[in-house]
Design goal:
The complex is a heterodimer of chains A (254) and B (245). Chain A has 254 residues and is an all-alpha fold. In chain B, helix 5 packs across helix 7. Classes of the chains: A mainly alpha (254), B mainly alpha (245).
Chain lengths: 254, 245
Amino acid sequence: MLAWLQAFIGTDLLVQYGPRLLHGLQITIELVLISICCGIALALPLALARLSKSRLLRGLSLCYVQFFRGTPLLAQLFLIYYGAGQFRPALQSIDLWWFFRDAFNCAALSLTLNTAGYQAEIYRGAIRSVARGQHEAAYALGISRSVAFWRVILPQAAVVALRPLGNEVILMIKGSAVASVVTVFDIMGETRLGFARSFDMRVYLYAAVLYLVLVEILRRIWDRLEARLTRYLRRSDRTEHVERAVTQAGPATH
Amino acid sequence: MADLLKLFSYGTTGWGDEILAGAWLTIRLALATLPFGLLVGFGVALMKRSKSRWVHGLASIYATVFRGLPELLTLFLIYYGGQLVVQKLVGLISSDVQIQASAFLAGMIALGLVFAAYASEVFASAFQGITRGQWEGAHAIGLNRTQTMLLVIVPQLLRLALPGLANLWLNLLKDTSLVSVIALADLLRQTSLAVHVTKQPFPFYLVACLLYLVMSIISTFGIVAIERWAERGQGRRTNERGALA
């Protein structure tokens, strides 16, 4: 049984490609972290533009969101990575060519632009979900608009946005795999290289396990985060104790 | 500018016809995947409702795995793994036959499996929206289980699942672009070929993006029409109820 398991996992193969896959994992995590963080910075102004009174701002923001949500990530990546090559002299003259020359940067940029489109929609919905009375109350208290936004509206919107944002991070982890197509050696990139060298399908299975573990860990972190941020919504421990005592005393309902 | 437009013209000098042929393959692939994904997704949703812990567990594992894996990885697993498995199976009969996997079939299966995993969640939550009374009512008028499912539950289920399925369709349309990586001549692949020859990446990829955008927008119109059709009975009924009350 043990020998069979060893053959199934392929110890030699794992020793050979395991470290490379772990390095790929690091690249994947970097890619996702950078794009999610930069994506937040880009998505908030976009969401505010969607909610603004100016028709021009609303229109521009809508176009951005439509474009990045309506087209495949892979096509966006090609547009940026290969498209930048066409503007090489121009990029060189403004000293930005070093950025676009690196596949990792291009992948990070296209993931950022892509997730910003999705996140903008999440934040727009979350901000709109905050009751009108909150705006009015802040206004009545004489709080300035920017303070009201940062201290009153945003904290409440953040709680609403948390769950969809978690889903978006998972989608980014999965989406980042396309970076391997433009020679970024993330998990997927290392896996493709490993398979090309060994012709052993098990390399793909290792990658599958890595991705599943990554997604599962993130899901658990997010559950914790949500429990922490919504702790004021939970009933107090005392009521819970009382409830438990009541249900234990009463007849079993299951 | 005129030179650039010439590149998109039809015929031997332009790439317009090649790119449109690619777009047509993208549409065909998405349309072929849809029924397969819907059927498997519905089956998995039924398994999730099963009382057997094994069947239920199996369905949950399926949904978790295929929603957690990158679509690109699933595609490679099916394309290369499927090739290996089929080769071994054929090898049992005769060892001379070389198997060349169909990229279209591999793409359809991989995208369908992913679609089904998400669709099973949509169907499972749609099942929650159907009240017990519907099942009991169907039982009371003497319908058997198959009739209940097909005549009573599924029509209501589809209406409840429609918004979720519409989102999945839009995702599917975009995910088809991944098959370009396994050399299937879809929209993105044909565009890449054109870029390779003309050395004009920016305009060509921009046109490809816009074509995907057009497909999404047309789909959105179609979805709105289908949803209106599915909801056609709803408005009247609330009126009747309003009149009764």
